[in-house]
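Protein: DUF4230 domain-containing protein
Species: Chryseobacterium suipulveris
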Amino acid sequence: MLKKYRFILWTVAGATVFFLAYLIYQMLQPNTASSGILILVMLLLGLVLGGVIAFLASGSLKAQAPIINESSHTIAESMRKVFKVVSAEGHFNEIYNYEETNKLLNFIPTKKKALVIVQAKVLVGYDFEKFKWEVDEQNRKVKLLNFPAPEILSTETDYKYYNIEEQFFNLFSKDDLAKIQQNGKKQVIEAAKKSHLPEVAAEQMRMLLTELLQTKNFFLENPSAISENKGMIDFKPN
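Structure follows.
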Protein backbone atom coordinates (compact mmCIF):
# COMPACT_ATOMS: atom_id res chain seq x y z
CA MET A 1 0.00 0.00 0.00
CA LEU A 2 2.83 2.41 0.84
CA LYS A 3 4.51 1.86 -2.51
CA LYS A 4 1.20 2.57 -4.29
CA TYR A 5 0.77 5.95 -2.52
CA ARG A 6 4.33 6.96 -3.24
CA PHE A 7 3.93 6.12 -6.92
CA ILE A 8 0.79 8.30 -7.13
CA LEU A 9 2.48 11.22 -5.38
CA TRP A 10 5.55 11.05 -7.58
CA THR A 11 3.30 10.91 -10.66
CA VAL A 12 1.45 14.04 -9.51
CA ALA A 13 4.75 15.80 -8.85
CA GLY A 14 6.06 14.86 -12.30
CA ALA A 15 2.90 16.08 -14.00
CA THR A 16 3.08 19.35 -12.08
CA VAL A 17 6.68 19.94 -13.15
CA PHE A 18 5.71 19.25 -16.76
CA PHE A 19 2.78 21.69 -16.54
CA LEU A 20 5.01 24.37 -14.99
CA ALA A 21 7.49 23.95 -17.79
CA TYR A 22 4.68 24.40 -20.30
CA LEU A 23 3.45 27.58 -18.54
CA ILE A 24 6.97 29.01 -18.55
CA TYR A 25 7.17 28.32 -22.24
CA GLN A 26 3.86 30.15 -22.79
CA MET A 27 5.05 33.12 -20.76
CA LEU A 28 8.07 33.48 -22.96
CA GLN A 29 5.85 33.91 -26.02
CA PRO A 30 5.22 37.47 -27.37
CA ASN A 31 1.57 37.42 -26.28
CA THR A 32 1.63 38.40 -22.62
CA ALA A 33 -1.99 39.30 -22.11
CA SER A 34 -2.58 36.52 -19.71
CA SER A 35 0.86 36.55 -18.06
CA GLY A 36 -0.54 37.68 -14.71
CA ILE A 37 -2.94 34.76 -14.52
CA LEU A 38 -0.19 32.35 -15.57
CA ILE A 39 2.11 33.68 -12.86
CA LEU A 40 -0.63 33.16 -10.25
CA VAL A 41 -1.29 29.64 -11.48
CA MET A 42 2.44 28.91 -11.41
CA LEU A 43 2.67 30.12 -7.81
CA LEU A 44 -0.21 27.90 -6.76
CA LEU A 45 1.19 24.89 -8.58
CA GLY A 46 4.62 25.61 -7.11
CA LEU A 47 3.15 25.51 -3.62
CA VAL A 48 1.40 22.22 -4.40
CA LEU A 49 4.57 20.77 -5.85
CA GLY A 50 6.63 21.91 -2.87
CA GLY A 51 4.13 20.34 -0.49
CA VAL A 52 4.21 17.04 -2.35
CA ILE A 53 8.00 16.94 -2.41
CA ALA A 54 8.21 17.89 1.28
CA PHE A 55 5.68 15.18 2.09
CA LEU A 56 7.71 12.57 0.28
CA ALA A 57 11.00 13.73 1.75
CA SER A 58 9.76 13.79 5.32
CA GLY A 59 8.65 10.16 5.09
CA SER A 60 5.41 10.95 6.86
CA LEU A 61 3.96 7.77 5.48
CA LYS A 62 5.30 5.32 8.02
CA ALA A 63 6.61 2.06 6.71
CA GLN A 64 4.72 -0.98 7.78
CA ALA A 65 6.39 -3.39 10.14
CA PRO A 66 8.34 -6.06 8.26
CA ILE A 67 6.74 -9.46 7.96
CA ILE A 68 9.02 -12.14 9.38
CA ASN A 69 8.43 -15.79 8.63
CA GLU A 70 10.29 -18.28 10.80
CA SER A 71 10.30 -22.03 10.76
CA SER A 72 12.33 -24.75 12.43
CA HIS A 73 12.51 -28.50 12.28
CA THR A 74 13.98 -30.57 15.09
CA ILE A 75 14.99 -34.14 14.46
CA ALA A 76 16.02 -36.39 17.33
CA GLU A 77 18.85 -38.49 15.94
CA SER A 78 19.26 -40.88 18.86
CA MET A 79 18.47 -41.30 22.54
CA ARG A 80 19.87 -43.69 25.11
CA LYS A 81 20.09 -44.06 28.83
CA VAL A 82 23.30 -42.94 30.50
CA PHE A 83 24.55 -42.76 34.05
CA LYS A 84 27.12 -39.99 34.22
CA VAL A 85 27.90 -38.01 37.33
CA VAL A 86 29.47 -34.54 37.35
CA SER A 87 31.81 -34.23 40.31
CA ALA A 88 33.80 -31.08 39.47
CA GLU A 89 33.23 -27.82 37.62
CA GLY A 90 35.82 -25.36 36.38
CA HIS A 91 35.62 -21.90 34.80
CA PHE A 92 38.38 -20.76 32.45
CA ASN A 93 39.30 -17.57 30.60
CA GLU A 94 41.66 -18.31 27.76
CA ILE A 95 43.41 -15.60 25.72
CA TYR A 96 43.90 -16.89 22.21
CA ASN A 97 45.90 -14.89 19.69
CA TYR A 98 45.41 -15.73 16.00
CA GLU A 99 47.61 -14.35 13.23
CA GLU A 100 47.89 -15.39 9.60
CA THR A 101 50.12 -13.96 6.88
CA ASN A 102 49.68 -14.60 3.17
CA LYS A 103 51.35 -13.19 0.08
CA LEU A 104 49.25 -11.58 -2.59
CA LEU A 105 50.49 -12.62 -6.06
CA ASN A 106 53.31 -14.40 -4.21
CA PHE A 107 54.88 -11.03 -3.55
CA ILE A 108 52.84 -8.60 -1.42
CA PRO A 109 52.45 -9.76 2.22
CA THR A 110 48.96 -9.47 3.70
CA LYS A 111 48.15 -10.13 7.33
CA LYS A 112 45.05 -10.73 9.42
CA LYS A 113 44.93 -11.25 13.15
CA ALA A 114 42.52 -11.33 16.05
CA LEU A 115 42.65 -11.53 19.81
CA VAL A 116 39.97 -13.84 21.21
CA ILE A 117 38.89 -14.26 24.82
CA VAL A 118 37.47 -17.75 25.34
CA GLN A 119 35.24 -18.05 28.39
CA ALA A 120 34.44 -21.66 29.18
CA LYS A 121 32.74 -23.81 31.79
CA VAL A 122 34.13 -27.35 31.99
CA LEU A 123 32.28 -30.17 33.73
CA VAL A 124 34.32 -33.18 34.82
CA GLY A 125 32.90 -36.44 36.10
CA TYR A 126 32.54 -40.18 35.59
CA ASP A 127 30.64 -42.58 33.39
CA PHE A 128 29.28 -45.33 35.62
CA GLU A 129 28.89 -47.65 32.65
CA LYS A 130 32.67 -48.11 32.70
CA PHE A 131 32.82 -49.12 36.37
CA LYS A 132 33.49 -52.69 37.41
CA TRP A 133 33.20 -53.83 41.00
CA GLU A 134 32.78 -56.93 43.11
CA VAL A 135 30.21 -57.16 45.90
CA ASP A 136 30.79 -59.33 48.96
CA GLU A 137 27.35 -59.69 50.52
CA GLN A 138 28.57 -61.73 53.45
CA ASN A 139 31.20 -59.25 54.60
CA ARG A 140 29.19 -56.20 53.41
CA LYS A 141 31.95 -54.76 51.30
CA VAL A 142 32.51 -53.61 47.72
CA LYS A 143 35.77 -53.93 45.86
CA LEU A 144 36.52 -51.80 42.81
CA LEU A 145 37.94 -53.89 39.97
CA ASN A 146 38.14 -51.17 37.33
CA PHE A 147 37.76 -47.48 37.95
CA PRO A 148 38.31 -45.26 34.90
CA ALA A 149 39.88 -41.84 34.83
CA PRO A 150 37.59 -38.81 35.11
CA GLU A 151 36.20 -37.43 31.88
CA ILE A 152 35.34 -34.00 30.54
CA LEU A 153 31.61 -34.50 30.21
CA SER A 154 30.72 -31.07 28.88
CA THR A 155 32.29 -27.78 27.79
CA GLU A 156 30.31 -24.57 27.37
CA THR A 157 32.25 -21.87 25.54
CA ASP A 158 31.69 -18.23 24.69
CA TYR A 159 33.95 -16.24 22.35
CA LYS A 160 34.63 -12.51 22.42
CA TYR A 161 36.71 -11.01 19.62
CA TYR A 162 39.05 -8.05 20.16
CA ASN A 163 41.59 -6.20 18.00
CA ILE A 164 40.45 -7.72 14.74
CA GLU A 165 42.73 -6.57 11.92
CA GLU A 166 42.26 -7.66 8.32
CA GLN A 167 43.14 -6.35 4.89
CA PHE A 168 41.01 -6.09 1.79
CA PHE A 169 42.63 -9.07 0.08
CA ASN A 170 42.93 -11.12 3.26
CA LEU A 171 39.60 -11.11 5.10
CA PHE A 172 38.33 -13.45 7.79
CA SER A 173 36.09 -16.18 6.39
CA LYS A 174 33.61 -18.46 8.11
CA ASP A 175 36.18 -21.25 8.02
CA ASP A 176 38.72 -18.98 9.73
CA LEU A 177 36.30 -18.17 12.54
CA ALA A 178 35.39 -21.85 12.93
CA LYS A 179 39.09 -22.75 13.14
CA ILE A 180 39.70 -20.02 15.71
CA GLN A 181 36.86 -21.30 17.89
CA GLN A 182 38.02 -24.90 17.53
CA ASN A 183 41.62 -24.06 18.44
CA GLY A 184 40.48 -21.86 21.32
CA LYS A 185 38.39 -24.71 22.71
CA LYS A 186 41.37 -27.07 22.43
CA GLN A 187 43.43 -24.64 24.50
CA VAL A 188 40.74 -24.65 27.20
CA ILE A 189 40.68 -28.46 27.21
CA GLU A 190 44.44 -28.59 27.65
CA ALA A 191 44.21 -26.07 30.49
CA ALA A 192 41.51 -28.18 32.17
CA LYS A 193 43.66 -31.30 31.91
CA LYS A 194 46.56 -29.54 33.62
CA SER A 195 44.38 -28.04 36.34
CA HIS A 196 43.25 -29.53 39.66
CA LEU A 197 39.88 -30.58 38.23
CA PRO A 198 40.83 -34.30 37.97
CA GLU A 199 41.92 -34.37 41.62
CA VAL A 200 38.78 -32.56 42.73
CA ALA A 201 36.60 -34.91 40.69
CA ALA A 202 38.33 -38.01 42.14
CA GLU A 203 38.00 -36.80 45.73
CA GLN A 204 34.34 -35.95 45.24
CA MET A 205 33.65 -39.37 43.75
CA ARG A 206 35.47 -41.13 46.61
CA MET A 207 33.32 -39.29 49.15
CA LEU A 208 30.15 -39.98 47.16
CA LEU A 209 30.73 -43.74 46.88
CA THR A 210 31.80 -44.03 50.50
CA GLU A 211 28.73 -42.23 51.83
CA LEU A 212 26.41 -44.04 49.42
CA LEU A 213 27.66 -47.47 50.51
CA GLN A 214 27.46 -46.52 54.18
CA THR A 215 23.75 -45.87 53.82
CA LYS A 216 23.41 -49.58 52.84
CA ASN A 217 25.79 -50.73 55.59
CA PHE A 218 28.53 -51.49 53.09
CA PHE A 219 32.07 -50.15 53.00
CA LEU A 220 34.46 -49.53 50.15
CA GLU A 221 37.39 -51.93 50.34
CA ASN A 222 39.87 -50.14 48.09
CA PRO A 223 39.03 -46.42 47.76
CA SER A 224 42.60 -45.83 46.65
CA ALA A 225 41.59 -47.19 43.23
CA ILE A 226 39.73 -43.95 42.65
CA SER A 227 42.79 -41.84 43.34
CA GLU A 228 45.11 -43.89 41.16
CA ASN A 229 43.81 -42.23 37.99
CA LYS A 230 43.07 -38.82 39.45
CA GLY A 231 45.91 -37.22 37.52
CA MET A 232 44.52 -38.49 34.24
CA ILE A 233 41.58 -37.15 32.33
CA ASP A 234 39.74 -38.24 29.20
CA PHE A 235 38.02 -35.89 26.81
CA LYS A 236 34.93 -36.90 24.88
CA PRO A 237 34.03 -34.26 22.26
CA ASN A 238 30.48 -32.95 22.55
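Remarks: The first strand starts at residue 84 and ends at 104.
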